């Protein structure tokens, strides 16, 4: 195992993801008991999971580690290597649970699109505010889409559901541009 | 080598936190004195390659931090302690400093462990190195952060108020610790710390360096302008009650006043008063 993996596993902020998984499990139990639910709940659940992954990038020791040779971008990438599979597993379990209750299955594209949007914001917003802003994006977008009536604006707000992979591609490109800017001179992004 | 800043400016919105500052530290310990909000931490963050200046140039250990490759080279040779270092409460000091050593690219595990043990012993944490950080006192946590900065025997140390929370014994230990590093730039509010630690001192007020020299030269600024009296003098620029019960005054002494030897505090306070008008 590489030297960074064990300490990064311990340093990663797991509480948002753990909280989210507990909430999803509770939701699944309640829905099972009541045998009822809203059709937009899986979308909100995916957004919460995406937000939890971005929130997991919060680093308490970021200031102390700001001047080490391994850049913040690389440290965050290492955290994502650990967070994303865990979140994907949780999402898979949730989707399986939804199938058990005869709800339509939810593919990976929608939470991936929301996660990519959150990470893109994190890549562009400097400092520790970036993680909070990035974590807020999936939830804000999903809630706004649910709360907005149909029409052109409403349809556009559902782009993460109707066109998840193009949305994911655009957000990833924007995020990578942010990463490239940070890599050129990390001092400019703090 | 060391550190050289040439007309470095950093603005946050309309506010200039650091305003055309030139400073060099080419060996020994340089102390940065100044009140809260003077721009010390911003200046140190630029010196530690954490923040880029808006204008001006920096040379750190003979390299240009604006160049990515040189930036990484600088960071391999740099130790940085921020003002409020966050730590992972669930880690032990050993684990945390070991993680920092991994991030400082110490790849050989056996050598890394020896180095981690060395710095933890140097800051006096050998007895608690396997206790969780959340169970340590504030002073011990500060020493964990200091140990992290010392990993790899850096050529340049940038320390923002390193003696925060340290007891007198630890402050003495800090002095000998820093003596081993070729160049140290540290900020502090504690003037006695400057006289104990620093070969050179710079005073920063409202984003500008208003004095550079030795601690003795800073004290000399107040030569002939400090006097003590039983009563408070309204003509003095500053007056305060001493522990002996008399008033110590700064300014132009009246005729017949008992002029006393100035201290570093007197020089600093007079300078701060003069600069603020």
From TrEMBL, chain B:
<keyword id="KW-0547">Nucleotide-binding</keyword>
<keyword id="KW-0813">Transport</keyword>
<keyword id="KW-0067">ATP-binding</keyword>
<dbReference type="GO" id="GO:0005524">
    <property type="term" value="F:ATP binding"/>
</dbReference>
<dbReference type="InterPro" id="IPR003593">
    <property type="entry name" value="AAA+_ATPase"/>
</dbReference>
<protein>
    <submittedName>
        <fullName>ABC transporter ATP-binding protein</fullName>
    </submittedName>
</protein>
<feature type="domain" description="ABC transporter">
    <location>
        <begin position="3"/>
        <end position="231"/>
    </location>
</feature>
<dbReference type="InterPro" id="IPR003439">
    <property type="entry name" value="ABC_transporter-like_ATP-bd"/>
</dbReference>
<dbReference type="InterPro" id="IPR017871">
    <property type="entry name" value="ABC_transporter-like_CS"/>
</dbReference>
<dbReference type="Pfam" id="PF00005">
    <property type="entry name" value="ABC_tran"/>
</dbReference>
<comment type="similarity">
    <text>Belongs to the ABC transporter superfamily.</text>
</comment>
